[in-house]
Amino acid sequence: MPGENLSRDEAQERAALLSVDGYEVSLDLRSAVGDQDTGQAAEGAPRTFRSVTTIRFRSAEPGATSFADLIAPSVTALSLNGKDLDPGEVFDGTRILLEDLAADNELVVDAQCAYSRTGEGMHRFVDPEDGEVYLYTQYEPADSRRVFVNFEQPDLKAPFRFEVRAPEGWTVWSNGVGELTDGVWKFAETKPISTYITAFAAGPYHYVTDSYSRTFDDGTTLEIPLGAMCRKGLAPYFDSDDVFLVTKQGLDFFHEHFDYPYPFGKYDQAFVPEYNLGAMENPGLVTFREEFIFRGKVTQASYEGRANVILHEMAHMWFGDLVTMEWWDDLWLKESFADFMGAFSLVGATRFKDGWITFANRRKAWAYRADQLPSTHPITADIRDLQDAKLNFDGITYAKGASVLKQLVAYVGQDAFLEGARRYFKRNAYGNTRLGDLLSVLEETSGRDLATWARAWLQTAGVNSLTPQVILSAEGRITELAVLQEAAESHPELRPHRVAVGLYRRTPDGAVERYARAELDVEGPRTVVAELVGAEAPELVLVNDDDLTYCKIRFDEGSLATLRERLGEITDPLARALCWSALWNLTRDALMPARDFIGLVLRFAGRESDIGVLQMLHAWADSALTFYAAPGWRAEGERLLAEGALKELRLAEPGSQHQLTWARFFARVASGSADLQLLGGLLEGTAKIDGLVVDQELRWAFLEPLAAHGVADESRLAAELARDDTASGKRHQVRCLAARPSAAVKAQAWAAVVESDALSNALVEATIAGFDQPSRRELLAPYAAKYFDAIERVWADRSIQIAMDVVKGLFPSLQDSQETLDATDAWLAAHENAAPALRRLVLEARDDLARALRGQACDVAAAG
């Protein structure tokens, strides 16, 4: 990573100096198959491909000096304005020095670029199932320079012309429509776009086509060719019809609301292996992780999640691709909008009408955690360089930003918000923007001054807590109801909130339902809800009913008592989800003992109708036991969770998604010999639960706990891989192998990830997941000190993606003691000059550990 970073100051200087007229890029990918051509690289060097690029650009100051970006093993030839330059003198491995620029310039670079095994740049994957090779690119924020020379920053947009030579029988895709002519794939010139959203996919992909058509009010018709692809091995599972259905519904929705036709021609969607992200919005060639193709039975929550990602990436075609932030400071201008629009269009255009419940329960949980870390930042962040940018694809930029946009829609009105978006697109098409460009059009359309709102919501960090304060008369009516607003000392901003306050009580049939509601603006530390004075006494007061704002919900004592007894009787699924989320926040904040939260899950989760909420409850209960429960109670908690999960598994409707969800949770918490014996029986067919089909994915889910508890050995896992000899099967096997309870196994896994770079990104991820088993904390104890000795070297030597995976994934969080906290503090004190992005990751992990210790103290106190 040294030398690869780019600072904001450097980018601003270069943008002031240069403007780019266009790129012509020619790649030769025939080296992707067969033995590496030893004429290209010395033995032991990375496998490479030829990349020839011509950039035409202008300089505002003739005679000035600048640089182009390229990360490559070597440059064969290089010329600037017809003059050959010595690569050894002007290329340092990451940058090409450009001196004595003319007003109009032409740079030609012939380079050998390296294929990647880390998911960055041109990723090369060999399918173990059939030996086929698949390529795809992933660039955000700055890895297109690993494939061709360029000016790698979002505000130097340009049109691109690509051509590719590929192995015989392959198909190649890029942003524009491609055509094979005389053995060369040539692609239509793109619109002016940023380097990080250019893209390629190449190989023997299984490819399915469809088309989209829409006639607009002016009589014009837009035709968009649609395509979807995956590896051949996944073709039998590829439900492309559903992918195309959601795609067409999304295109209709965004055309109707944005009044700006999709501007990038075709719309291909590639589901690719070993992908680091969920998806990426490359115009004309959106890439997704192939896990969105389901090899086994999954719940509706999985289909909803995939649909949400499809729509999120589609929203980027306008927010991010058509109009792009000037620098990564304003990353929210694309990610927050796409996150909001994903849920907005999911509910408005598809069969997934409960998308806002998922948003409230899952996405906002991510935001609440991120906003309480020491690394929290305003939505409009201070991004000093590319390493900062890489880490800022976080819960603040995505989920908090989307939550704040939902609040903004409530504040200015949906019509004004959408009209502002339409003007924003038309004024800034193919350009770059900052915060003020968006706020100015929203002020026009809403008539509101948004400067104060922006300062409070976009330019300050932290999350507020809203608590109801209820005073009742002797007759049982509300004499006063207020909302109290609090903020953390570290981030004391009290924000304006548009909220709904709901009053709930039991009906004669025992259900808990809302009987009164008021919507108001909450400002300052205390706001009176005058509209509800005189209402009958509630059993539950729900602040932020309908989830209009972004806040942590608290409860008065009476409401909390109601939830402890009647949470499962709340009939409205969104209200119920908000209550669960609030209870989880109380647990994380050490205001509710972990055993109490687990008790609520055991008592009420079996009555949860929303499958996505149920899956989240399982994840939270698992985290409560692993991190927040008193160590002395963990064994009892494990037993209770396993018993409760098995009970609900047996009670669930045969063949239902609830049954599948409880089966997976039972496998996650199983630890006793009887539980493990049952899992083994289900695998072998000697045990049966009516309606439960143990498909291949569920088999691996059952095998992991068996491996972690020493029941499934290496030969058993090898036999399962023989049964499922696929890329997915290999990832599962690697995870299970690393999970085995042996000191030798842990040493081998540690060495494979930390001391070697032989594993691909997907297998690094799988190894870390298997290594970190809560059931064998004692085996991981020796690695706490080794972690702190290794991370600075890992950060320096490995790609940033792998380094992030190692630093986050191997932090000794399961060694949850004051000694580990002290060791973390000692490393931070001794490494004040370490890379800021590395320190940020360690600080975040330290905060999670400190929070866990506070939660454990709360749980100990509850036990008396």
Rg of Cα set: 28 Å
Instruction: Tell me which oligomeric state these chains represent.
Output: single chain
| Cα end-to-end separation | 51 Å
% residues in beta strands:
15-25%
Please state the structural category: alpha+beta
Task: Give the neighbour order of strands across the main sheet.
Answer: 5-4-7-2-1-10-13-12
Largest sheet: 8 strands, mixed
Number of helices, where a helix is a run of at least 4 consecutive DSSP H or I residues: 28
Q: Overall pLDDT, averaged? A: 95
Explain how this protein is built.
The model is unreliable at 37-42 (pLDDT under 50). The protein is an alpha+beta fold and 864 residues long. It has 28 helices and 28 strands. The strands form seven sheets. An eight-stranded mixed sheet has the order 5-4-7-2-1-10-13-12. A five-stranded mixed sheet has the order 15-16-17-19-18, covered by helices on one side. α3 (240-258) packs across α4 (300-316) and α20 runs antiparallel to α21 (727-739). It is 43% helix and 20% strand. The radius of gyration is 28 Å and the shape is globular.
